[in-house]
Design a protein that fits this description.
Among the domains are: 204 residues, 3-Layer(aba) Sandwich (Rossmann fold); 70 residues, Ubiquitin-like (UB roll) (Roll); 62 residues, no CATH class. 53% of the residues are buried. It has 16 helices and 18 strands. A six-stranded mixed beta sheet has the order 2-15-14-18-16-17, with helices on both faces. Helix content is 29%, strand content 18%. It is α/β, with parallel strands linked by helices. The structure holds iron/sulfur cluster (2 copies). One iron/sulfur cluster binds next to helix 13 and helix 14.
């Protein structure tokens, strides 16, 4: 019998309709899907959790679509970076991202010829072994597209090590105005489902569960149709669609653990260990299937450009596209007075220089919202922040404790459980920025999460002795993983010399 339950956590913000969050907008919210070919891209070497990749090109080099322009140093927790356009490298310099990260960045000027690498071509992805599939995903530079950008291959390896049973696909995009994941499902449902099945098989899961909002009937139907089409190829997997209530921040792994498995995870517990499940974003699954079946590295993504000051644009753009080029294509945006936010309007960061701010692998939305300045007053003890906190915290109490330097007391009050959702700051009528103080205090919990993945990344180096020969000059990083080739370590005559370390080859 079908599971008719509606899963959820308590509290949070009731977004109702992610596109009509404020219910004040005068714009018609038609979702449009557009393809953008920018005049240039700026590729930061750090768009993920971990250390920056190292550029492998120099100014003046010609690059093609799909070409690797940055590789991880051996043994580092990182992912490679690829170009989504063809053209010449015009600049390699440091770039300060809105989140404060300083990273080397490669700028490529588009020649508009769309010249692809020959290696970008279809292959029989179903024949790949688990080891090869995870290797392809690693070399394709795929990281989580819905959140912090944890390298997907490391997460898959951890899930395999923990012997997970459930492979969860997060189709629950709940951030206000963001619909990029929903568009990915509508436009490419088979890619999302096939990517999930291939990854579920690679980690040895027995169930593949799609988590989606109860209101997303169209996307739900698309997923159900896709499952029907492909299930004969994946008889080893059991499929199900789990319906969730629409509220923000639905989809965060600790809230999913509570809703689906009834477990309250602490900051140092993982879904894999405690619930024998692993959670991936649906857009990440799309990227995985593109890499596995078409040899396409992670070089483009769908981005929503939307807010209470703009219609519901969704653009398929090469990663690295400057935000200014997105805004140019969203005609209804009044650049002068609106706030342009890198990310969603609750947790994102205002963009000061759209020309020098690129779309990165984790950018699901550029929010365009009207500028509203709430006058800052002392706390009026209205309790709204506690009412909406999905982690059942008392943000005003914790905020006061942190202000007075009482860190131990704040920790006892549960401050480390904050998931930085931004809800408390959003609802506060006193205009107090509660989130920044509490979330930075809680940040240490995330370090534990990354550390547990680091263990897997080191193990990976022992598994892949052919590391040096895999990164091939002009060819795609995926060349080594051909159809069903168990012994995938071809040697390359031209290993690349790293520009920053003289004698080091990759
Ligand atoms: S305290 Fe943290 S988890 Fe709670 S509402 Fe504020 S930002 Fe969200
Ligand atoms: S929402 Fe703002 S004013 Fe109300 S209790 Fe929380 S901190 Fe105080």
């Amino acid at each position: 019998m079908a599971d008719r339950r509606r899963y959820s956590f308590y509290r949070g913000l009731f977004t109702g309709d992610v596109l009509n969050f404020s219910k004040r907008s005068p714009f018609v919210k038609e979702i449009m899907f557009e393809r953008i070919y920018p005049s240039k891209i700026i590729l930061p070497m750090k768009m993920h959790s971990g250390v920056p990749a190292v550029p492998t090109v120099k100014v003046g080099d010609y690059v093609r679509i799909g070409q690797c322009v940055g590789v991880p140093e051996k043994g580092s927790f990182s992912v490679p970076v690829h170009s989504g356009i063809s053209g010449k490298v015009s600049d390699i310099s440091d770039l300060r991202l809105p989140n404060g990260i300083l990273t080397p960045a490669v700028t490529i000027v588009n020649d508009m010829k769309r010249t692809r690498l020959d290696s970008v071509r279809p292959r029989s992805a179903l024949k790949l072994s688990a080891r090869e599939a995870i290797g392809v995903i690693r070399d394709a530079g795929i990281c989580g597209m819905g959140g912090e950008g944890l390298p997907t291959a490391a997460k898959l390896k951890r899930a395999r090590t923990e012997v997970v049973k459930d492979f969860l696909v997060n189709c629950l995009q709940s951030e206000p105005y963001a619909t990029s994941d929903l568009v990915a499902i509508t436009e490419y449902p088979d890619y999302v489902v096939l990517g999930a099945c291939a990854c579920a098989r690679a980690v040895g899961a027995s169930r593949c569960l799609f988590l989606i909002s109860e209101y997303r009937k169209e996307q739900r139907q698309s997923i159900a149709n896709s499952i029907e089409r492909i299930k004969d190829d994946f008889r080893d997997l059991e499929f199900d669609i789990k319906l969730f209530r629409e509220r923000f921040p639905q989809g965060y792994y600790r809230l999913v653990a509570r809703a689906l498995y009834g477990k309250n995870l602490t900051a140092d517990e993982t879904l894999e260990k405690s619930c024998k499940a692993v959670l991936f974003n649906c857009s990440t699954m799309l990227a995985c299937w593109e890499a596995l079946s078409d040899n396409i590295p992670m070089m483009s993504r769908i981005v929503s450009v939307s807010g209470d000051a703009s219609g519901g644009h969704n653009m398929l753009v090469p990663i690295g596209t400057p935000v200014s080029e997105l805004l140019l294509n969203a005609q209804d945006i009044n650049n002068g007075s609106d706030r342009i936010v890198w990310g969603n309007c609750l947790t994102g960061i205002e963009i000061k220089d759209p020309e020098r701010t690129p779309v990165v692998k984790t950018t699901s939305v550029i929010s365009v919202v009207r500028r509203v300045e709430i006058p800052r007053t002392p706390c009026i003890h209205c309790g709204l922040c506690s009412e909406c906190c999905p982690m059942n915290l008392s943000p005003n109490t914790i905020y006061e404790m942190l202000n007075q330097g009482l860190k131990q007391k704040a920790a006892e009050e549960g401050a480390r459980d904050c998931i930085a959702c931004g809800s408390c700051s959003y609802v506060c009528p006193a205009g107090i920025n509660l989130t920044t103080a509490i979330a930075s205090f809680a940040g240490e919990g995330r370090i534990i999460e990354v550390n547990s993945l680091l263990d897997n990344s080191n193990a990976e180096d022992r598994d892949y002795e052919d590391y040096k020969t895999r990164y091939i000059g002009e060819a795609s990083l995926l060349e080594d993983y051909s159809d069903g080739d168990e012994d995938s370590g071809k040697s390359s005559p031209d290993a690349i010399k790293l520009p920053f370390e003289k004698d080091k080859e990759v």
